[in-house]
Specification:
By secondary structure, this protein is α/β, with parallel strands linked by helices. It has helices at about 1-40, 65-70, 95-100, 145-165, 180-195, 240-255, 335-345, 365-380, 425-430, 440-449, and strands at about 50-55, 75-80, 80-85, 105-110, 115-120, 130-135, 175-180, 200, 220, 225, 230, 240, 260, 265-270, 275-280, 285-290, 310-315, 325-330, 350-355, 380-385, 385-390, 395-400, 405-410, 410-415, 435, 440. The chain is built from 10 helices and 26 strands. The model is unreliable at about 445-449 (pLDDT under 50). It binds flavin-adenine dinucleotide and iron/sulfur cluster.
């Protein structure tokens, strides 16, 4: 009798498992198919950064990559194979590659339709100019974790090179680092660890792009591994920008790092086997130069009359500084949508117009699209699609809204039109810049992500 019960329980268990598998297949696949159709319909099929290329012949559909991806719904399974369901939402974490048990994922950058230009770097982030390194986002990979890792790896390599090539001529420094964001901070710590004579030049304040995130922005980051400090973890990998900056500042003070703030790097010359780094007031000689400038240093301008007026800004730190104002936000990406959303909080009393060149906000993540459309429906935010800025004067901004000219009274304008990368300058130094058309970053990603 007992044996009979067990048999029945066993059958029920197997039947339940089968049902679960069937439901997961049916509804999981249905969701993936719907999401994929949406991506195609909204023309959101080109990834903007590093992304996975799935080798279908090696993928056996274990779904580990789908579950490990920190961006919800970016990857899915279709017919037992992994696919990129929302390609333009991929931000390049690269964890899918690490988790895949069958090496079925390669990380690539750019696509045939959306090639991306990046400097040609060795796996150790050295350019084709000996001793000149590029680390962090300027090298083509976004995210804090990648930047931190690259800063450290570049210095480890530079130290080994200096030693093996027996480079012992006299310069002011062994290493000059340009930029004190995540990659520059990590490079600076690595220099201290390797007992190199270094200097880090920062045109603004320590912290890089993080310092300019909106107040209390939630940052997603994996545990960060710094030289000297070791692993720096945050609760559930989610943290406010203020906490990151506070912890990094504590390290900076404790280690007494040689970072000069408000020191802008202007240019660089290669003289024989060393570099001369020029700032507006002083020049420094160095054996190794590490460019950790990120991509946000030079915001892209609109190029319209009146853009030099003081009411125009290219970043928003705290929306609470603006109350009862007429504000125009220009741009169609996440930064513009987030700025428009925070400025249009009803308690601030602002009248906010978001001006977007396209007929949609599809460049934004889903959260930002949802918030913008909810606010627009509630009348808290006006969105003008297919509109471009024609000119600006003291009290108004003139827009071309799909052929119709409109003048809007306004006090402040925030422009989020991307940024200019310093590629012409790098090319002038002889640095090769290559166009990536879905080109694998195999070697680089092995050490970088
Ligand atoms: C709004 C926003 C939200 C983001 N959210 C996240 C997130 O949640 N998680 C995540 O991992 N990543 C996030 N990122 C991306 C992340 O911030 C970047 O990938 C990272 O900061 C890149 O580090 P970096 O060191 O290469 O450059 P940056 O952080 O840009 O630092 C470069 C530094 O160089 C300095 N510099 C530039 N030019 C000069 C010059 N001529 N002379 C001297 N100094 C100079 C700059 O002032 C800056 O301090 C976000 C980015 C943005 C814009
Ligand atoms: S982890 Fe690898 S094998 Fe598993 S589904 Fe993803 S790509 Fe395929």
């Amino acid at each position: 009798m007992i044996g009979g019960n067990l048999d029945i329980l066993g059958y029920v268990f197997i039947a339940l498992l089968g049902l679960l598998f069937f439901l997961r297949e049916k509804y999981g696949r249905k969701k993936t198919e719907t999401d994929l159709k949406n991506s195609i319909k909204k023309k959101q099929v080109e990834p903007y950064t590093l992304h996975p290329l799935i080798k279908t012949e090696l993928c056996f559909g274990c779904a580990a990559c789908v579950m490990e991806c920190p961006e919800e719904g970016v990857m899915g399974l279709l017919s037992g194979k992994a696919i990129l369901v929302k390609p333009n939402k991929c931000v390049g974490h690269g964890v899918c590659k690490d988790i895949c048990p069958n090496e079925a994922i390669e990380l690539v950058i750019g696509t045939k339709n959306l090639p991306i230009e990046i400097p040609n770097l060795t796996p150790h982030f050295e350019t084709n100019v000996d001793g000149l390194y590029i680390v962090g986002e300027l090298g083509g990979m976004g995210l804090i974790r990648n930047a931190v890792k690259q800063g450290m790896l570049a210095i480890e390599h530079a130290k080994a090179q200096l030693k093996s090539r027996n480079i012992d001529f006299v310069t002011d420094h062994d290493v000059v680092i340009v930029g004190a964001g995540p990659s520059g901070f990590s490079a600076t710590l690595a220099c201290k660890k390797e007992e190199l004579n270094y200097l880090c030049l920062e045109q603004e304040e320590f912290g890089g792009a993080i310092r300019h995130y909106p107040r209390q922005k939630i940052v997603m980051s994996f545990p960060l591994e710094f030289p000297i400090v070791g692993k720096m973890t945050f609760r559930k990998n989610i943290v406010e920008k203020e906490e990151i900056l506070e912890r990094w500042n504590q390290v900076r003070e404790k280690e007494n790092l040689n970072i000069l703030e408000n020191h802008r790097f202007d240019s660089l010359e290669k003289k024989g086997n060393h570099f001369i780094i020029h700032t507006p007031n002083k020049s420094y000689t160095t054996k190794v130069a590490v460019i950790a400038m990120g991509v946000g240093g030079t915001p892209r301008k609109l190029g319209v009359e009146g853009e030099n007026l003081e009411k125009i800004s290219y970043r928003l730190i705290d929306a609470k500084n603006y109350t009862n104002q007429n504000i125009v936000v220009v741009g169609g990406g996440n930064s513009a949508a987030e700025a428009a959303a925070s400025l249009s909080q009803p308690e601030l009393g602002n009248k906010v117009v978001l001006v977007c060149r396209k007929d949609n906000l599809n460049k934004c993540n889903e959260t930002n699209i949802d918030i913008a459309s909810r606010k627009s429906k509630a009348g808290d935010l006006e969105i003008k699609y297919e509109s471009i800025v024609e000119s600006i004067d003291e009290d108004t901004i003139t827009l071309n809204c799909d052929g119709t000219i409109e003048k809007i009274e306004n006090h402040f304008i925030f422009v989020f039109a991307g940024s200019e990368k310093p590629f012409p300058f790098l090319r002038s130094l002889g640095v090769e810049i290559e166009k990536m058309y879905g080109t694998p970053l195999k070697e680089k990603s092995d050490v970088a992500v």
